[in-house]
Amino acid sequence: MEHTVNSRSRLVVVGGDAAGMSAASQARRLRDSRELEIVALERGEHTSYSACGIPYLVSGVVPRKQDLVARDPDTFRRDFAIDVRTGAEATGIDLDQRSVAVRGTGGGHWTERFDHLMVATGAVPRELELPGCAAAGILGVQTLDDGIAARAFLDRNQPREAVVVGCGYIGLEMAEALVQRGIRVRVIDSGEEPMSALDPDMGRMVREALQGMGVEVHLRERVTGFRSQRDRVTGVLTAQGEYPAEAVILGTGVRPDSDLAREAGLDIGPTGGVAVDARMRTSAPGVWAAGDCVESFHRVTRGPAVVPLGTHANKQGRVAGTNIGGGYARFEGVLGTAITKVCGLEVAHTGLNEEEARRAGFVSEAVAVESTSRAGYYPGAERMTVKLRAERGSGRLLGGQIVGWENAGKRVDVLATALWNGMTVEDMAGMDLSYAPPFSPVWDPVLIAARKVAERC
Amino acid sequence: MEHTVNSRSRLVVVGGDAAGMSAASQARRLRDSRELEIVALERGEHTSYSACGIPYLVSGVVPRKQDLVARDPDTFRRDFAIDVRTGAEATGIDLDQRSVAVRGTGGGHWTERFDHLMVATGAVPRELELPGCAAAGILGVQTLDDGIAARAFLDRNQPREAVVVGCGYIGLEMAEALVQRGIRVRVIDSGEEPMSALDPDMGRMVREALQGMGVEVHLRERVTGFRSQRDRVTGVLTAQGEYPAEAVILGTGVRPDSDLAREAGLDIGPTGGVAVDARMRTSAPGVWAAGDCVESFHRVTRGPAVVPLGTHANKQGRVAGTNIGGGYARFEGVLGTAITKVCGLEVAHTGLNEEEARRAGFVSEAVAVESTSRAGYYPGAERMTVKLRAERGSGRLLGGQIVGWENAGKRVDVLATALWNGMTVEDMAGMDLSYAPPFSPVWDPVLIAARKVAERC
């Protein structure tokens, strides 16, 4: 059964960040307030902020927290006629009664009736239940409030030494933020090289660049606990030893916050994310979900994947909002594309790395090609390495990774577009990509890599 | 009849630049000198140079002419066993006798017998047979020798004022070169706006940027002649008036140099380029052609197009060389992708503009979206405009144009990849492109433009 919008119906949105508010505002574009009442429940204070901007708030590159807020609650109320309730946490969903139980930060409890329900509960940090983890100075950076608190702690205490736990995208960005603040940084990661999204040969380049920036990189180490004095962190413990730290950043990743959905009886997928179809419908009629709390269709593995990124949250929210508003839209899946930079080094990937390809059952070949960002003779040409992986036999592109300096990273979008279309590397090698000496060698690094891996397939 | 390589056969290459030498060296990779003798005839002194780098040689950004030479004749002789003859101009091809008539710069004449013939005669400037055009200081920039001569003229005479005739890619790059040399620059172009490859609304942005750099832009004017004193240019004449100029750069474009092929009886296409198939075979067995002298298959119009760019010359030459060497390769066509920059402004396009789409019989819709190169709150975010054109009804992408500052231009490769795959703009709008605040707003400009044009189709 589909719930469509008849007379005046009511949409309740749980979670007021990218996915929830994209859905709400898109539904509003299609249905005015005489047709659709929209209530958005947000347990924090902020709506629609750029979580991806938090490292830049912590570093000070972005000066004010307001800079990260795309639209505040008042804007949604005024311009979109969306009844945003901050400090309002959804504590339960009753699918039979079609209502949400809410607890206010002030202590009040009430319920909200819905015709449509949008679940956009986001993600929570992976638990790191370690001895001493409650000490001051052990800082999460997942929500805007986390980021504000982390920056305040660093401003107030001016630590000289810090540890970043986890060296994925967030870990890298936080390492950059701390370096920019003049803090001596150690990163600790359990992997063979930083950035487990990359193959180790590409991760090695990231490690060498980090080391070149003065960052100490400790690999194959797991954090076992924290040392503190007077409830303030002083060190990080691993099986290998202890590292002094006046501040610790937890960059260990997140998992879908799907508990509320699970308790309500919505289907949860094998990855732990809320299961949705391409129109962002959950297993219950009239209940939609989007953003970091859902699992998405991965276009290469053809299976579910959790990719908690603002870009998907925005797209999925918009798709849900279009469908809630009576339109038709589909979210056509993810490739796992991601990009970051650390002090000038650009790192990006899309699709499957070696380990992911193997786990997905592909037999693959890969080639890493070192080239330059401009014609070799043009000033400012910088090194970049492009690695492509393709299925043996068919030559179908499976994934790509880029590590390099200025202008390297965004080239991953060419790989993502090729991957989106299921191209073979042979076909890619002939593509008409742009060339002029300030932008590329005459054989673009992407074309060379495609040709070389095609020769192996 | 196919000519394949039996016992020892002989390949004669006419033209020793990108296409010719790519073919020669690729054929050599597949066939050693016991199987294939290779003779390359080049009327100039240089082989395999980057013609696209000439503006940067003239500006001085690239200091030495050798920097532009990828491989010199001695390298080809030594490392590839290719008998390169410089100062050797092919004056006729006898398809029955399978021989090429050659004239040496020293005055000698001889013939070269061939089994395979590679025609890579390149392009010649469009004739500008105007009164006074032989005066000193009227400078072409098509060959490396032209570039060397232009730079020498500018070094020697230190002009204060110069005119660039034609404001396409080369005209823009030469305007930048002259600005960088501290010369006052006027550009004169017959079009409504600079860069006729772009729609006028995008060309206007280029004009405004040029004007912002102090370049005088004269549009809808045709050059009618040149004024000179003592055989040295002093001014450029148009119907509207006279512009003082101590140097004039001719940036009026090129046409395929297909005369030799035509006289030999090879099929010439409707564009004036040598007609070839996807394997770079001409109408005569065992005769191949590639580079600026041929016409290529345009993947959007599905018709022939002349796109004289080094990137195609290299790819086509490589394809021809593979086939000559007994392998199998195809050149899968062009999109007309191009990119340039002028003093920081990046300009790029791919596929069809409004006029080209109309002429090709498409009814199209287009949207130009202004966005930024980074998240709005991230330092260094620069304006960029992305314009996409799609076929009405089907929504198929027909072309894209980008004008913007730092990091704008190379995004055209995403458009080119989408175009290569025949994507619809609706499908493009959902793509998983990379996002992080230093690289893009959360809705990448390409995605926004795709969505907006999809809404119109």
UniProtKB/TrEMBL annotation, chains A, B:
GO molecular function: oxidoreductase activity
Family per record: Belongs to the class-III pyridine nucleotide-disulfide oxidoreductase family.
Residues covered by the Pyridine nucleotide-disulphide oxidoreductase dimerisation domain: 339-442
Organism encoding this protein: Haloactinospora alba
Domain FAD/NAD(P)-binding residue range list: 10-301
Keywords: FAD, Flavoprotein, Oxidoreductase, Redox-active center
The protein's required cofactors: FAD
SUPFAM superfamilies linked to this entry: FAD/NAD(P)-binding domain, FAD/NAD-linked reductases, dimerisation (C-terminal) domain
Coiled coil: none
InterPro entries: FAD-bd_OxRdtase, FAD/NAD-bd_sf, FAD/NAD-binding_dom, FAD/NAD-linked_Rdtase_dimer_sf, Pyr_nucl-diS_OxRdtase_dimer
Domain of life: Bacteria
Pfam family name, one: Pyr_redox_dim
Key word Protease present: no
Protein name: NADPH-dependent 2,4-dienoyl-CoA reductase/sulfur reductase-like enzyme
